[in-house]
Amino acid sequence: MIISSEHRPWPVPKKNWRMKQIWHDLLFIHWPLPISMIRPFIPKRLEIDTFEKQTWIGVVPFHMSGIRMRGLPVMPIASRFPEINVRVYVTLDGKPGVYFFSLDAESWLAVKVARTFYHLPYYLANFEVTEKENRISYQSQRTSSNGRFCFQAEYGPTSDVFQAKKGSLDYWLTERYCLYANNKNSLYRCEILHEPWPLQKADANIIRNTMADLDGIRLPDIKPIYHFSKKIEVLTWGLEKV
């Protein structure tokens, strides 16, 4: 598999990529939030990224497949599962990226590996995901939360595929090529490569969403911004301490 990297804001690492994934039926759901609301949750070294002086929080349901380590076949017991994450936007040393508040997945092995080797806040969850007539029905429930962190929605695309223009809010929200993780007061960066997002406008009927209900954070009671992407192939590198 060859993925071009010319569109990336900075060069890919000289080291070989470590993991391949394919993401399917992904919905970006974004709300604006005050910087002061999310600052307590972000490591001090990271600057909260903004677009026109406004920052955003995203809830992102999708499912992945084809997960494998470089040089190895697809992992038979952890190669395909749903995931939903809660993310905000940060930057360090001129490299804007993603910082995750949580990532819920159906695979216990993926949860363990991601927590151990990527220092990411993964949680085990139960999911029901189906597709009918180009609409995705998506439900998740974190197993350890006593019903607190759950999501239920139906969503789908409403436009043709497009690529976000540089300098637009669409681009700022989606075209991110690294993630940051924190462990024992040490900060890490993981580089990411994929083609420019094949986006579509979308709509959703969100029945329940408590994924971002952290102490001190409340989503505004407004209609969020939706973006849909049917499929994208992704390469990730290992963590590098920064």
UniProtKB/TrEMBL annotation:
Could you tell me the superkingdom of the organism this chain comes from?
Bacteria
**Gene3D superfamilies on file:** Acetoacetate decarboxylase-like
Sorted alphabetically, which SUPFAM superfamilies does this protein's record hold?
A: Acetoacetate decarboxylase-like
- Sorted alphabetically, which InterPro entries does this protein's record hold? ADC_dom_sf, DUF2071
**Which PANTHER family does the entry link to?**
DUF2071 DOMAIN-CONTAINING PROTEIN, DUF2071 FAMILY PROTEIN
Specify the protein name: DUF2071 domain-containing protein
